[in-house]
Large ribosomal subunit protein uL29
Amino acid sequence: MKVSEIRLMPAEEIRTRLLDAKKEYMNLRFQAVSGQLTDTSKLKEARRSIARFETILNEKLLEKEVEGEA
């Protein structure tokens, strides 16, 4: 998912997607440990998508704080 698409989402949907991405990452880790995961690049992709969601969510929260102070 592109960053521009994530920025258009409301904060609640980003939180939902973040939880889903974390669950997916955990499943991939279990598969890697048990030897079932053949494409290990999926682990890297999952970590990066989690980071994207968290970064944009934090940006949105900071925007709300700044708007509240102004």
About this structure: The mean pLDDT is 94. The CA atoms of residues 30 and 36 lie 8 Å apart. The two ends are 33 Å apart (CA to CA).
